[in-house]
Write a structure and sequence with these properties.
Layout (H helix, E strand, L loop, with lengths): L6 E3 L2 H13 L10 E8 L5 E7 H48 L6 H17 L4 H27 L6 E5 L4 H12 L3 E5 L9 E3 L11 E4 L3 H14 L4 E4 L8 H9 L4 E6 L12 E5 L4 H9 L7 E5 L1 H27 L5 H6 L3 H14 L3 H9 L4 H21 L2 H19 L6
Parallel strand pairs: 4-5, 4-7, 5-6, 7-8, 8-9, 10-11
Antiparallel strand pairs: 1-3, 2-3, 9-10
Helix pairs in contact: 2-4, 3-4, 6-7, 9-11, 9-13
Length: about 425
């Protein structure tokens, strides 16, 4: 039998019924009318069945071969594209070195705009959407900037010959700080009961070693940070001490006690996650608790990056964080809780999802994957936390009241108010 033929074995009774129906049917040219008997085949139990072949499958084989060839060509093009991207990254690294030698800043917004506009023009000439070209170039620019920022951090080597202890360094943000500071030339030591990190010198208990480090970074959950800061007061380390907690009001008394003990202490809040590579358009909040020298020392750690430095008081920090983190978290937790308890299946909703729903779902899904214990601390330990939750409840009740009363004018007013507020805010954002 020809190896290229594809067939199926049917019982004689089934084939007889099939052929009888075909004789009664009108002539046709479709695949179903091309079935032909091609002999018989003995089954395992000794009975015979006619073997039927579909000629349409044989005619499809050239089409399948053509599809395979086209996909192979796509694969070859993908490789060439990636090779060109690698060459582009190499050139971007060389440009980064030139910027460092000439004392230029890493980011040049005028040049970025020119690159994007050129890409959109070229896309138009090639019959491609300008938006596609812009998205691709934005990704390449972000990658190049991250590479150049890392080059600058390494080049300046602000931590050369200095030592830093990171308490809680095995956590995700602790690891980020360990690698960030190591890239500046710091000798990094990790203190974490979770166990050692292969990249760095590690100890289980920081209380068992002399605290003669230039910096002591506390990267632990808020409740643990409170007790660690209290213990550090007794040890009186000579270096700069700072925490990276999301909230500061729970640490108010411990920070004040360190200041009174003459310890160089400040407080830092990195407004980004542990997967962040590029600090452009990211913010680092510095909370000066009364020791300006310590705050300036913490700021110097980020001078070689493109991070935006924001200074504020402890009370202002937590009052604003109640909205920036507390409200946004609460909104998304409420969103996925309402969905989960609605009785509507997630798969069913996905079949008819809209652009707005998908965008909100994406953010909510990201929140759902975060550390629930950290998120609970952000909601429950902030002295100003109930203020933002009350604002959310009031806004939902106001919307509900407007809808139930059928007050279209009030509904439009809510939308207009939101649009005006967000437009003012968006105008202040830096271009990406």
């Amino acid at each position: 039998m020809n190896a290229n033929r594809r067939g199926a074995v049917f019982s004689p009774a089934f084939l007889t019924r099939l052929l009888l129906r075909r004789r009664r049917a009108a002539p046709c040219d479709g695949p179903a009318c091309k079935i032909r008997a091609r002999g018989r085949k003995e089954s395992a139990d000794g009975r015979f069945a006619l073997v039927v072949y579909n000629d349409s499958l044989r005619r499809k084989e050239p089409v399948l071969k053509e599809l395979k060839d086209k996909r192979k060509q796509l694969g070859n093009l993908d490789r060439r594209i990636l090779e060109l991207i690698a060459r582009r990254q190499h050139l971007a690294a060389e440009i980064g070195q030139i910027k460092i030698r000439q004392g230029q800043t890493t980011r040049d917004f005028t040049q970025e705009k020119e690159v994007i506009e050129r890409a959109r023009r070229t896309a138009g000439e090639l019959g491609l959407p300008g938006s596609l070209a812009e998205r691709v170039l934005q990704l390449l620019i972000q990658n190049s900037l991250a590479q150049q920022e890392q080059q600058r951090v390494i080049h300046q080597a602000g931590g050369s010959g200095k030592r830093v202890l990171i308490i809680g360094g095995a956590g995700r943000m602790g690891r980020w700080f360990a690698r960030f500071l190591a890239s500046q030339g710091f000798e990094v030591q990790i203190a974490d009961p979770a166990g050692p990190m292969e990249e760095f010198s590690s100890i289980e208990d920081w209380r068992t070693v002399p605290l003669d480090h230039d910096y002591v970074v506390v990267a632990t959950p808020i409740r643990e940070t409170r007790s660690i800061l209290a213990d550090l007061k007794a040890c009186s380390p000579p270096g700069v001490v700072f925490d990276i907690s999301s909230l500061k009001s729970p640490l108010r008394n411990e920070l004040r006690a360190l200041v009174e003990a003459g310890i160089r202490v400040t407080s830092v809040h990195p407004m980004f996650g542990p997967d962040t590579r590029l600090l452009s358009n990211r913010h680092v909040i510095l909370v000066d608790v009364g020791v300006a020298e310590a705050t300036e020392a913490a700021e110097r750690l980020f001078q070689s990056t493109m991070a935006g430095i924001v200074r504020m008081s402890l009370e202002d920090h937590d009052r604003l964080i109640a909205y920036v983190l507390g409200l946004s978290h609460a909104l998304n937790i409420s969103f996925f809780t309402a969905l989960a308890e609605s009785g509507e299946g997630a798969a069913r909703l996905a079949e008819m999802s809209s652009t707005t729903f998908n965008a909100q779902l994406s953010v909510a899904a990201s929140v759902a994957e975060e550390n629930p214990h950290l998120y609970f601390e952000i909601q429950s330990l902030n002295d100003y936390g109930t203020e933002s939750l009350a604002a959310l409840l009031y806004a939902i009740e106001k919307l509900r009241s407007v809808v139930r009363s059928g007050d279209e004018e009030a509904f439009v007013a809510l939308m207009d108010q939101g649009r005006r507020y967000l437009n003012r805010r968006l105008k202040k954002l830096p271009s990406s």
